[in-house]
């Protein structure tokens, strides 16, 4: 994903500035210019980038900062905040309530991934116990109803549409009425897309919206549309009351910066992102963890949520106990990758890891000593699993890296779901200093800097959210 490159460029710019002996006007300008270049290359709208630069300069008034101030930290925080501000319109979107009927209308250009996203959205809520239903009001594209029908059938979600009726407004109204009677609590209306922003598309959308009175209109945007994002999003916003954005195809080579522009154009938050063609390749979008990850700062709370989501309930206490004892074995890594495999396509990534089969012996799996595996054993595993020795070595390196992180977490009480404040109580600067990569700790100003930063941040959740546990 090109967004990762953007994050890399921004982090490097901050790092370069940190390395300067004195952080003066020139060092700050160089850093901001570098960030500006990176954002423009990622297709973020020029005006947004310029405003960001001006805001940071306003916040970071070098003349006002006394010599003792940690200028680098203040600048880094300002950049973090400004990036968050770009993605956060300041007001949350309408959130449907489970058990109470809500109508959600999807709009977007043809091929943006609208129909796929409707089903993903329905499926996401269905997994959480909702009763969603899909209405196909796209009478423009031949095959649109079939596509929705196929997706809905696969996900066992009720659907409504017609092969004969050509009036999208009538279909939408009939579908919504029917599912309201059937007590569905999330009625999703898929509308037509067009190649271009034609007047006919907007008129049709307006009519469907007027007739169905949606509680929320979601604008679906393909992340690869680049600089065109701002105008496109604005055109939609002018015709219907767009309340939220979903950015699709974030898994591709898209620059992704258009997402930032769409938020500004619609003044609506991005609520989900699409990360693949499959039903479950769909992620809730949260601004702070996203910017943290973008800046290479990790996303601890997201990681904990993933554990709670992916690991079967009955295995969670045991796993968390083992992890808190710093006892991370190859078997744990294997089992967790297997749990991830169950999630579907993400497994494709992990299935490329070699040796996760009968190739590994129990002794090897349950030992926390990677030295058990010598060169000839690695060659044997590579042969047996049809992989390159280099891949086996890489897998062991990854294991060592994770084991190192977890060994440093020894003694840390891991909270249950929804108990992040427990983490704050148990997490102290000592733990954090062990987990942070040394260069990042240095940047923060060593233990002293870390302690005061933790105090400032108020809770360890935010700290972990910002800096993550990785030491890649
Ligand atoms: N890689 C990837 N492909 C996606 C994603 N979302 C949708 N697609 C693909 O994009 C293509 C277009 O998606 P559709 O859902 O048919 O697009 P649409 O916007 O509904 O098109 P119209 O109904 O014609 O307006 C399909 O091949 C989808 O599988 C995503 O997040 N990642």
Automatic annotation (TrEMBL):
HAMAP family on file: SRP54
Catalysed reactions listed for this entry: GTP + H2O = GDP + phosphate + H(+)
GO cellular component, one term: signal recognition particle, endoplasmic reticulum targeting
Assembly notes: Component of a signal recognition particle (SRP) complex that consists of a 7SL RNA molecule of 300 nucleotides and six protein subunits: SRP72, SRP68, SRP54, SRP19, SRP14 and SRP9.
Family to which this protein belongs: Belongs to the GTP-binding SRP family. SRP54 subfamily.
Organism: Turnera subulata
One Pfam family recorded for the sequence: SRP54_N
Family matches, as InterPro entries: AAA+_ATPase (IPR003593), P-loop_NTPase (IPR027417), Signal_recog_part_SRP54_M_sf (IPR036891), Signal_recog_particl_SRP54_hlx (IPR013822), Signal_recog_particle_SRP54_M (IPR004125), SRP/SRP_N (IPR036225), SRP54 (IPR022941), SRP54_euk (IPR006325)
One GO MF term: GTP binding
UniProt GO BP: SRP-dependent cotranslational protein targeting to membrane, translocation
Official protein name in the record: Signal recognition particle 54 kDa protein
PROSITE patterns xref list: SRP54
UniProt note: domains: The M domain binds the 7SL RNA in presence of SRP19 and binds the signal sequence of presecretory proteins.
Location(s), subcellular: Cytoplasm; Endoplasmic reticulum
CDD domains: SRP54_G
Record key words, sorted: Cytoplasm, Endoplasmic reticulum, GTP-binding, Hydrolase, Nucleotide-binding, Ribonucleoprotein, RNA-binding, Signal recognition particle
Domain SRP54-type proteins GTP-binding intervals: 269-282
Function: Component of the signal recognition particle (SRP) complex, a ribonucleoprotein complex that mediates the cotranslational targeting of secretory and membrane proteins to the endoplasmic reticulum (ER). As part of the SRP complex, associates with the SRP receptor (SR) component SRPRA to target secretory proteins to the endoplasmic reticulum membrane. Binds to the signal sequence of presecretory proteins when they emerge from the ribosomes. Displays basal GTPase activity, and stimulates reciprocal GTPase activation of the SR subunit SRPRA.
